[in-house]
Design a protein that fits this description.
The complex is a heterotrimer. By secondary structure, chain A is an alpha/beta fold. Helix content of chain A is 39%, strand content 24%. The longest helix of chain A has 19 residues, at 128-146. Chain A is globular, with a radius of gyration of 19 Å. The two termini of chain A are 33 Å apart. Chain B is mainly α. By secondary structure, chain C is mainly alpha-helical. Chain C is globular. The two termini of chain C are 13 Å apart. The chains are: A alpha/beta, B mainly alpha, C mainly alpha. Chain B binds chain C through residues 35, 81-82, 85-86, 89, 91-93, 95-97, 99-108, 110-111, 114-115, 225, 228-229, 232, 264-268, 270-271, 274-275, 277-278, 281-282, 285, 295, 297, and chain C through 76, 124, 127-128, 130-132, 134-136, 138-139, 142-143, 146, 149-150, 216, 266, 269-270, 273, 315-316, 319-330, 333-334, 337.
């Protein structure tokens, strides 16, 4: 099942990106592109560098070599809050929710960049701060409806089961109305039903809002089903890039997964 | 020139005293990951108990033994009633609990023994050593030198203890990861009891030396606050770091007071070590000898 | 039965995000305000004002400032009293050197200067955290106090170092009775508490809590840690500065550095731990507790002395006070880390069900 929207031009390009931590090369000369409105999966064995790839796109790490271009503008040494302002949102492998806050507040933080009232205006409340708060609350409620989490909106996130926490994290990312969504193993640790729900949400996001999605996933069924194109990483190198079918039949990829020495 | 050396050496030696207090911190931090803000009040308690016992007629040796016993008991009580209930709480809660503990111990000490300032005599006089003073004209106090010697012995013993003995290794394992240590069968409670007992012993030595030097009074607890910059410079989990840090803080504090003080009206000693530590933190947060903290995302 | 919220539905987001969504809470607060603003001034004794109510309110304001910084933004500070001192001294200098300056403006000016100092000493928070930051704030505490003592300009070159605070006058009306001082302090504190509540439930409050809980993730959603942290230091120090000015003008009557020592910083920290870290109510509950405790202890000791004909010296009382503070901190951290505010919240939840068990 592929995306209903027409896939556009390349919106994100990595050229020769290399990232090393001391002597360990996490990414080695990676070049790939992501096209607008598509769903791009990143797969590979553990330690292949998948999370590092997302971190580099996001600005958490800065690559030592190579360039990253987003919407035509080079930006490989931007900080995370700058990439957030550009419209890139992400979720994390180990849930990065704010445990001291409720679900609603967590998702509201996702709207942070849309809220312009100064601290003084917020202290007074009546006027711009109040108006903004209510407008953004309405938008957040749309996301809450979309992800079907109305019943837990006031619950502190620390009390939620794992699957719901993942959903809340997705909601927070969506609340920012991103044009590029980076998902780091959004279905990890979920049972079949939860996975189906998550898949449905990811597809709906892509369909309804046109969001470009880059996701890391281990479940091959999910990857083959929902993604338009797939990148395969192994030991920090790209060893496959194409449609799910192309990648599924590539000998290099099969070898890497089966552990054939290479 | 010889004045400079006098100030320097005096500062180094008082730095040794700071190191002794810092040692107690490092011990507890190394073994339980707890930053024991109450270490200073433990020093105060030890000194006050010793002096109080002597006033009640106990001879030196017996008073020493009794105080040591009291410190060990105190340490065990702390471990049982304060640390154990807070085992899985965030570090900051433990830190604040030790702040509360410091108030509790200070109040208790004064309640038991009264709040008057006392002198403490441990038999070594605070007079210059003739065989150094005569040829060079530099006055080095016999007492300070003895204190430095005692501290050196203590530090060596502790360093060896941590790195060579089985218990020392168990302590380091516990400091690293409580759960993992439990999983390999290290008796957590026994270990902590040992650690607090040793820390109590170190506090006793520090208390005696400080008390003999400056008199036993409530201000002793503020001295303990000075140990914090020492720890920042030396690293929270390093025994040699506590020594080096103490030496640096002691000497720079005295030098600053003597050479910079007159320009700004004096009293620099009160804040100079902290500002120095602050600057150091900005440049090298883990201290000279501490372990670098790496955070994974 | 009294505290049922059944039937109170919120049909707009505006109603849902109100500070007190439950009607009974609103009635309760209205009653408290009536008591505070009308009943108390008419009935309380001057002693009650000067020894209990005024310091409780002023220190609650400082505790509120510290709570914003430590409870909401997660930046541990042991230098609260120093920022209060800045507020006090700068207010003094504003009134002294700017003829005819309105009193409230002078207080606000003291607060702003405290905020500026707070930003400077908050800069290290960008690189260091936890108890390392606590040590950095200790540097602020000692250095600022030394500065205020040594640099003559602050004390107007007064040889004794202790300055008498000028009388508080607004538009020709002098606030010199305890009753008047109480009402002035109450008004200022109420307004600032309301502002704090608004900030905390708004965007900046969420930014602070995000920084506290996980600053890496906060950055990823576009929050700038530097800006949020420095803002926390600034706002918190402003509150502490105004509290410091009130402390000097409405309580002590003098402006002296020794009143703002490390002990006061610890007391305010204890207030937020006992009262409830990360809540606005906690600052007030904690302040009441800490202000009342020493008085209760000395009254208790005096009572024992009278009824049992003992001769317990007053030093016992002050030592018991130290022990009580320390012991209570440990007790609360073990039993109820979220302090009295949480206990109050649990009580309210139980009241909702009362008289039914569940």
């Amino acid at each position: 099942m592929t995306a209903v929207r027409a896939i556009g031009d390349s919106v994100l390009r990595l050229d020769g990106v290399s990232l090393a931590f001391g002597g360990v090369k996490a990414l080695n000369d990676i070049s790939l592109d992501v096209r607008e409105h598509e769903i791009r999966a990143i797969i590979g064995p553990n330690g292949a560098g998948k999370s590092s790839l997302l971190n580099v796109i996001n600005g958490v790490y800065h690559p030592q070599h190579g360039t990253i271009t987003f919407r035509g503008k080079p930006r490989h040494d931007m900080d995370t809050h700058e990439t957030a302002a550009l419209g890139i949102a992400r979720t994390f492998q180990n849930i990065a929710l704010f445990r001291g806050m409720s679900v609603l507040d967590n998702i509201m933080t996702g709207r942070n960049l849309k809220m312009k009232a100064t601290v003084l205006e917020q202290a007074i409340w009546f006027g711009r701060a109040r108006r903004e708060e209510l407008e953004n609350r309405a938008k957040v409620e749309e996301v809450i409806d979309f992800l079907e989490i109305q019943h837990i909106r006031k619950t502190p996130v620390g009390r939620l089961p794992y699957g719901l926490q993942k959903r809340v994290e997705l909601a927070r990312a969506l609340a920012a109305e991103p044009s590029l969504l980076l998902l780091d193993e959004p279905m990890a640790g979920m049972n079949v039903e939860e996975k189906q729900d998550m898949c449905r949400f990811v597809l709906d996001v892509n369909e309804q809002y046109g969001t470009t999605v880059v996701l890391i996933e281990h479940d091959m069924g999910v990857v083959m089903d929902i993604s338009d194109r797939v990148v395969v990483l192994d030991y920090g190198r790209k060893i496959g890039d194409g449609t799910p079918d192309e990648v599924r039949n590539s000998k290099t990829v099969i070898d890497a997964y089966l552990g054939v020495p290479h | 020139m010889q004045f400079f050396f006098e100030v320097l050496i005096g500062g180094l030696l008082s730095g040794v005293m700071y190191s002794l207090v810092a040692l107690g911190f490092v011990l507890i931090y190394k073994a339980s990951g707890v930053f024991n803000f109450a270490q200073g009040s433990l020093v105060f308690f030890a000194a006050l108990t010793f002096v109080g016992l002597m006033e009640h007629g106990l001879p030196f040796g017996l008073a020493l033994l009794a105080t040591l016993l009291a410190m060990i008991v105190l340490g065990l009580l702390i471990e049982k009633f304060v640390l154990r209930p807070l085992v899985n709480q965030p570090q900051i809660s433990l830190f604040m609990a030790t702040i509360g503990l410091s108030f509790l111990i200070e109040g208790l000490a004064q309640l038991l023994w009264g709040a008057n300032v006392r002198g403490l005599d441990i038999g070594i006089q605070d007079e210059p050593l003739a065989w150094i003073a005569d040829p060079t004209g530099i006055n080095v106090s016999k007492f300070d030198l003895a204190a430095a010697g005692i501290a050196a012995v203590l530090v060596t013993m502790l360093a060896l203890f941590f790195s060579r003995t089985r218990i020392g290794r168990a302590l380091r394992a516990v400091a690293d990861d409580h759960q993992a240590a439990l999983a390999v069968g290290i008796p957590l409670q026994q270990i902590w009891a040992i650690v607090w007992a040793v820390a109590g012993f170190v506090a006793l030595v520090a208390g005696l030396l400080w008390g003999a030097r400056n008199g036993v009074q409530f201000a002793l607890t503020f001295v303990a606050l000075k140990a914090l910059p020492v720890l920042i410079l030396g690293g929270f989990d390093s025994v040699p770091g506590a020594i080096v840090g103490g030496l640096i803080i002691g000497s720079t504090e005295k030098l600053a007071e003597v050479y910079l003080g007159p320009y700004v009206g004096g009293g620099i000693e009160g804040w100079f070590p902290y500002v120095l530590a602050l600057i150091f933190l900005l440049v090298r947060p883990e201290g000279l000898f501490g372990e670098k903290i790496i955070r994974r995302i | 039965m009294l505290y049922r919220e059944a039937g109170q539905f919120k049909s707009t987001y505006a109603a849902d995000s109100a500070i007190l969504p439950i009607r009974q809470d609103r009635i309760g607060l209205a009653l408290i305000l009536i008591v505070a603003f009308v009943v108390v001034p008419l009935t309380a004794s001057p002693y009650l004002f000067s020894a209990l109510l005024i310091p409780c309110l002023i220190l609650a304001l400082a505790a509120l400032g510290l709570n914003l910084l430590t409870g909401y933004a997660g930046q541990l500070s042991l230098g609260t009293a120093a920022f209060m001192a800045v507020g006090a001294f700068m207010s003094y200098n504003f009134i002294l050197r700017v003829p005819g300056i309105p009193l409230l403006l002078a207080f606000a000016g003291g607060g702003i200067m405290a905020a500026a100092v707070g930003i400077v000493f908050g800069l290290p928070s960008l690189r260091i955290r936890g108890f390392y930051l606590a040590v950095a704030t200790l540097a602020a505490q000692f250095f600022i106090l030394w500065c205020l003592t040594k640099v003559g300009w602050f004390t107007n070159y007064n040889p004794s170092g202790v300055i008498t605070a000028q009388p508080m006058v607004i538009l020709g009306y002098a606030f010199d009775t305890p009753q008047e001082k109480y009402l002035l302090v109450l008004s200022i504190v109420t307004v600032m508490a309301l502002a704090a509540k608004n900030m905390v439930r708004g965007n900046i409050g969420r930014q602070w809590m995000a920084i506290r809980d996980m600053d890496v993730a906060a950055e990823v959603i576009g929050i700038r840690p530097m800006r949020a942290k420095l803002l926390a230091f600034a706002v918190s120090s402003f509150y502490c500065g105004v509290a410091g000015a009130l402390f000097a003008y409405a309580y002590l009557g003098t402006v002296e550095p020794e009143a703002y020592n490390l002990d006061l910083s610890f007391r305010i920290l204890f207030m937020i731990i006992i009262g409830g870290v990360g809540t606005v109510l906690g600052a007030f509950l904690g302040s009441a507790f800490i202000v009342v405790l020493p008085i209760a202890l000395s009254v208790g000791v005096a009572f024992l002395n009278d009824t049992l004909h003992l001769n317990i010296p007053s030093s016992v009382g002050s030592n018991l006070e130290l022990m009580a503070f320390g012991g209570l901190i440990i007790f609360f951290l073990i039993v109820e880390p979220h302090g009295l505010a949480r206990i109050w919240q649990i009580t309210k939840e139980k009241l909702r069900l009362w008289p039914f068990p569940y």
